[in-house]
Each structure stands twice: as structure tokens, then as C-alpha cells.
Amino acid sequence: MKKTLYLMRHGETEFNKKKRIQGWTDSPLTQNGIDQAKKAKEWFEKNKIQFTHAYCSTSERASDTLELITTLSYKRLKGLKEMNFGKFDGESESLNPPLDQYDTFFSVYGNGETRAQVQQRMNETITNIMRHSDHESVLIVSHGGAIANFYRKWENESPIKKNEPFYNCCILKYIYEDGKFILENVVNENKPAR
């Protein structure tokens, strides 16, 4: 049976605005982040999308975003949290390593997670959610890095490829069938003006 997953990044936070590394440390939504979530809600309504179930990470920025999208009751799960950046959490984004060192940098130098660890827990958590027989149309609000690692897991299965960052309140529409996630659409309604 085909099911639909809407995997969404939370709205802009104070740490996003201040260019701080934000993993397990939380930061409140900015007014812009609230407006982004409301714009995403409008997109769901315009496309007549109704959810049977909703989930988010245990971070308040995710639950606050979800609550602006739907009044449906929801569950918060640790497996949907952002990558743990260890001692780099809350520090300036200027401390981020080059992309070719990103896979293990935070576990080696910061006592955080590897990309592989994030990918595994995101995939296990989301797969367990989608296996429920009554979960036909699911909204999950998570985080940019966590979503990117989930995307990488299923990238080769999907005809649609990411061609820009997953901006705040970006929505990835996946079809889940036969244990596989196929990316059908990426909605970046809140892409910043350049």
C-alpha cells in the first residue's frame, strides 16, 4: 500500500539567524520562522492535504513549527532530533569543517554524532512510523541536517534530486511503498531572496 510522508524542516530560529551551530541545543522560532510555518500551512491547505498522523523531534523548534501547521495530536520522538554536534553545539557556524571532513568531524573532535549515525536513527525512526497500517498521510517536522542524512539514504532510489539547500520549512514529499522511500517533490516555498 502506498503511503505519503511529508518530511519538513522547522521554521527559522534565533540560532539560524545568528549563524550558530544548532543541534541538540534548542533556540526559539523567530517571527520569520513563525511566518514560514504559516506559509507552509497555506501550501498544505491549498493542496488539500490532510494528515492522518503527525510527529516531530523532541526539540521545541520542531514542535512549535508543527503546532502552527496542524491541530492534530502528535508524538515527539528523540530519533527525529538534529545531529548532535557535541561541544560545537551553539558555537559559530564558522567552526564547521569543510564538507569532505563532515562525516566524522563532530564525533572525533566534539564528542557528537557521525553522519552515518544520524542517517541510521532517522531511517529507523521514520521507517517504524510509516510501517503502521493506518499511517496513510504523515507529517514529520525535523531538522536540516537530520533530513539531509535521511535524503542521502534514499537518494539513489528517487528520480528527483536535491538542487538547493533544505531551507527552513522546506517540505519533502515521499511515497513509501514496499519498504522504500521515493522522493516525489521538494517544496521550498520559504527560499530566501537573493
From TrEMBL:
Gene Ontology MF annotations: phosphatase activity
Protein name as catalogued: Histidine phosphatase family protein
Species of origin: Dubosiella newyorkensis
Sequence positions that bind substrate: R9, H10, G11, E12, T13, E14, F15, N16, R61
UniProt lineage: Bacteria, Bacillati, Bacillota, Erysipelotrichia, Erysipelotrichales
GO cellular component term, pick one: cytoplasm
SUPFAM superfamilies tied to this protein: Phosphoglycerate mutase-like
Entry-linked Pfam families: His_Phos_1
InterPro entries (alphabetical): His_Pase_superF_clade-1, His_PPase_superfam, PG/BPGM_mutase_AS, PGM_Phosphatase
